[in-house]
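Hey, sorry to bother you again with one of my protein questions. A protein chain has come my way and I'm curious about its shape. I'm sending you its amino acid sequence along with the backbone structure tokens. I owe you a coffee for this, so here goes:
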Amino acid sequence: MTVFKTPNLSWNGSLTSLNKSDVEYIIVHHPGAENYSLMDAHREHRDTQGWAGIGYNYYQRKSGTRYIGRGQNQGAHAGGTYNPKSVAYCIEGNYSTEEMQKHTYEAAVEGVKELMDFYNVPASNVIRHSDCTGTTGQTECPGTNYPWSQFKSDIGGSGTDSTSSGSSSSGAPRYGDDDLTFRQAHGDVWGDDGYEWLQEALNDLVNAGLTVDGVFGQNTLDATRDFQDMYNLSYAGADYYGVPGPTTQAKIEELQNGGSSSSGLPSGMLRRGDRGDGVRAVQEALVEANFYPDRNASNNGVDGIYGPDTENAVERFQSVYLSNEVDGIYGPNTREKLEEVM
């Protein structure tokens, strides 16, 4: 599917696969929380509820960014007989207490229409969580303020208008009194070339996985926004959200020029599959903090390879010092906490 990003999620046990042909319904949810990321949902469902992980098959942030959660595996979201024959599409927010912004709504329409095509589900079988019969308890999910009638009308077409890489997403935040898209508001950036430096930096600092072609398209926009979110440089709906302006460039230069702190820990992000001196420095710090990647190995697991043992050691460290961020990924918060502990 073209409009969904695949996050790196650590599951508590195995998932049950879901055949496309078994999917009869798409069930729309909200988490009932105004600021609630994919990782917030994943950690709550995995660590608090005791499930394998996030119960939703697909998750959308208010910014319009869409993620695969359980994907083509059986969800844990509706109870009754629905989980084995449906997929859940959850939209960040509490639409019992707040109104949905236009860019969020348009991204939801686009995302659900993409799923309708993929699973061959008609608009009549796109339902709310509150419509599910035989489930335990009562719910008004996805909220009394969710514009359901308009939503059903807008998904009633063919559902074929999906956003491919490099095109301007209708789910992007709008700008100004004229309700401009990012492409219209920032035509000096969108589609322009010469952005190899940005793509290389984002690949190096946050493992963005961008093709270094120099062209500022949708993937580069999404990666820039992720970077800005990570370092609190901007926010969804801000005039320059996604624009690699002076503040963003300064943060990139700071991380690149700083390289590593006085503790020797690298900047940016590291995760399973990464290798090198930066990984080795993280492993050494974990050993010093008594979170050994492999205590039975002669080198305590310090080998410069970010494998399952290192991921597990990072998760154990996070569970003690960053209980709201247990994902096994080394990033700015884990680095800061390791520096405090060392």
Observations:
- Residues 102-119 form the longest helix (18 residues).
- DSSP finds ten helices and six strands in the chain.
